[in-house]
């Protein structure tokens, strides 16, 4: 096992080129392929999740291994259902525990040929593409929005278009809107018919002459965290915009109550410390699940009691993030409580911390990146298997070094 030891500088100043958004990259790649576009989207990320998507679409091998990429697994399941040929779609062991039954059922209702080659309800899948005739399908919106995005994106390729009826609470809704945004940029006619129903007209995609992917707001959250925890900091992040289709752009607003101000300039944002953090924080992360880890670590280390709800999807992500957060925060001396698998709270209760805490990352990039800034108030922190960051932000550790952090054991 690899381990790094992090220490932070006193003052943190930097200009950071973030990776581009893997959510946008992976949508643009799927839509571009369905549009049979001539050129690839520009500014594609070099992260694992996008690399596996590029490889799958370029090579189309009989067995497609998408590693740990949830978007690639879900989007390709729908894509391969309408693409000629038979493929096995598989991923890491963890991916084989991440449910996909609701998407498979929905695709079968549309007429798709999708079989389980392992356990019922989970990858790997055996998919044979064909033309899908049916157009009306109902599925729960409360497990993963990626199923809905996957179905929407193949909508323009269906003979009769698509009507999606969603039942239950709709989670991660900004990601559905992001999908619609990209589809429309590629000429699709799609949208919300009402609060619970989406439509896609049987109108083919028309690729724009070029499509440029913007930087990743979820990745920016770790720099907000650094700014919030540092005694003195100013960070410039080029390639981020106020008017972003990414739901995680809301991180700027959320961190304004934790003492970080965002200045929106022409082609960048600038983060600066300003004002006093709130004395406690309550927030429902239903629309920004990927920000939850960032806020758990930031609030606890700023000694801000919190109550975070809307976390039900965290259990089926790269790891069970609720369990992982509780376990690792305990190493730092914070006792968190969980309620009903969807609420995490910290009421200020402390326990003895480990003498030299060493954070486990559970094959989850966000565990590594959310905990790394904790080295600022702690003085020093070890992180196990730091290479996990490559899922979304391969140069995260280099960027920390460039702003003055020392990282022992990196190479
Ligand atoms: O569509 C997307 O790009 C994503 C949707 C979200 O997943 P869920 O819809 O499963 O919450 C998010 O957590 C994931 O990182 C990316
Ligand atoms: C949940 C995530 O990714 P995915 O579901 O696409 O694997 C994430 O990046 O936090």
UniProtKB/TrEMBL annotation:
Chief subcellular location: cytoplasm
Zinc keyword on record: no
Residues of the active site: 290
TM spans (from-to): none
The organism's place on the tree of life at top rank: Bacteria
Annotated phosphoenolpyruvate binding sites: 22, 70, 98, 146, 321, 366, 391
Keywords carried by this UniProt record: Amino-acid biosynthesis, Aromatic amino acid biosynthesis, Cytoplasm, Transferase
Cell location: Cytoplasm
Pathway: Metabolic intermediate biosynthesis; chorismate biosynthesis; chorismate from D-erythrose 4-phosphate and phosphoenolpyruvate: step 6/7
Binding site for 3-phosphoshikimate: 22-23, 27, 144-146, 172, 290, 317
Keyword Cytoplasm: yes
Pfam families, per database record: EPSP_synthase (PF00275)
SUPFAM superfamilies from the UniProt entry: EPT/RTPC-like
Segments forming domain Enolpyruvate transferase: 8-60, 63-400
Catalysed transformations (reactions): 3-phosphoshikimate + phosphoenolpyruvate = 5-O-(1-carboxyvinyl)-3-phosphoshikimate + phosphate
EC id: 2.5.1.19
Quaternary context: Monomer.
Family: Belongs to the EPSP synthase family.
Job description of the protein: Catalyzes the transfer of the enolpyruvyl moiety of phosphoenolpyruvate (PEP) to the 5-hydroxyl of shikimate-3-phosphate (S3P) to produce enolpyruvyl shikimate-3-phosphate and inorganic phosphate.
Name of this protein: 3-phosphoshikimate 1-carboxyvinyltransferase
Gene designation: aroA
